[in-house]
Amino acid sequence: MTVDVTPTFFHSNQRSDVKTAVLIPCYNEELTIKDVVKDFKNILPNAQIYVYDNNSSDQTITNAEAAGAIVRTEPRQGKGNVIRRMFADIEADFYLLVDGDATYDASAAPDMLTLAQKQRLDMVNGVRVTDRQAAYRYGHVMGNKVLTGLVRFIFGNGSKDILSGYRVFSKRFVKSFPALSSGFEIETEFTVHALKLSMPIGEIETTYIERPQGSVSKLNTYQDGIRILLTILNLLRRERPLLFFSVLAVVLSATGLILGLPVVYEFMHSGTVPRLPTAVLAMGLEILAALSLCCGQILDSVALDRLENRRLHYLSYPTL
């Protein structure tokens, strides 16, 4: 279930007894981290602000501490590794995840948290909206639309912006999330995890701005785009193996038929098999197609059992 909401600034209804943690993964963000921490401290005065440094070589740690954040480190490089560590270490009722590059609007945080609390949502996604080309380049917009559309087609309608780095999670989402990815593809894993467990999720549009001058993005458009695409295919294989291996079986079977039918035709007319290697290849492809279909059926039963266990683990944490 997805709830789509336009910001209405109804955060006055936010409960004061709810423990909120703001999680900021950082790598070389000395120019922006102080402002990010201060913005969230001002807008969420009761929240604890955690900055996890990921081997920065600049003054990120010093500036984060000066701004009043709780600073910890994660030596394994990659955003996914940092988030895995954050989710394991920190205890809270709600977790607000945001990048440390000052591109997200802190004023949207209370609305996101209030929506999660009022409607008991397990994830609220901050959908990026901007009219600034420097903030959200055309290539990134198109890549995000393609990848988001692919995830929605395979796993069902969920987020309109699967690559957003601005989200609110419930405790039961965080503690049931396996966090298998090591890099930026972790954001795709968030959405698929929520969709597979049929979690209630929502969205709020939030302003997205460009980095300040001198701040450099860590995102490699093509390299990370390929990694995200491979992650989607891997999630398809792991979460929907029958579909994955059925498609593979169809491709193998069709190739085998294209190669094998001329050989069969010649045998029926001449009684000989003049192209024996082609016949053997075609037969091998049809055998592989049958094996692929069988593997898909077996792994689908395994995936269903895993899904049931994950769902029960998720339900072991009470809603707020």
If you had to describe this structure to a student in words, what would you say it looks like?
The protein has ten helices and eight strands. It has helices at 33-43, 60-66, 79-89, 109-118, 138-155, 171-176, 186-196, 221-239, 241-270, 276-315, and strands spanning 2-5, 20-26, 48-53, 70-73, 94-97, 123-129, 167-170, 201-207. Helix 5 (138-155) runs parallel beside helix 8, helix 8 packs across helix 9 and helix 9 (241-270) packs antiparallel against helix 10. Mean pLDDT is 87; it is low at 6-12.
SSE blueprint:
Blueprint lengths: L1 E4 L14 E7 L6 H11 L4 E6 L6 H7 L3 E4 L5 H11 L4 E4 L11 H10 L4 E7 L8 H18 L11 E4 H6 L9 H11 L4 E7 L13 H19 L1 H30 L5 H40 L5
Parallel strand pairs: 1-8, 2-3, 2-5, 3-4, 6-8
Antiparallel strand pairs: 5-7, 6-7
Helix pairs in contact: 5-8, 7-8, 8-9, 9-10
Keywords, please?
320 residues, alpha/beta
Summarize the structure.
The protein is an alpha/beta fold. Helices cover 51% and strands 13% of the residues.
Instruction: Please identify the structural class as seen in this structure.
Output: alpha/beta
In terms of per-residue confidence, which ranges show pLDDT below 50 for 5 or more consecutive residues?
6-12
What is the strand tally?
8
Helix content: 40-55%
